[in-house]
Amino acid sequence: MVMDWNRIEGNWKQFKGSAKEKWAKLTDDDLKLIEGRREQLEGRLQERYGKAKDQVRQDVDDWLKTLH
């Protein structure tokens, strides 16, 4: 079952470690600013990794599938 994004947003402190593990270029400040908002996460990933919006969206979708 794919994680519901609302659950990630509501429990960001719980999930930000996993995000940091997956995307090591995200800084602690990035993670603080993201606050569980998907658009913010995707925007930061685009900045840090220089990937296209579609690729970043797919990366985030793939990450979601790994969460329980």
Automatic annotation (TrEMBL):
Domain (CsbD-like) spans 6-57
| Record SUPFAM superfamilies | Hypothetical protein YjbJ
Superkingdom, taxonomy of origin: Bacteria
PANTHER family reported in the protein's UniProt record: UPF0337 PROTEIN YJBJ (PTHR34977)
Query: What family does this belong to?
Result: Belongs to the UPF0337 (CsbD) family.
Spell out the protein name for this chain. CsbD-like domain-containing protein
Organism whose genome encodes this protein:
Bradyrhizobium diazoefficiens
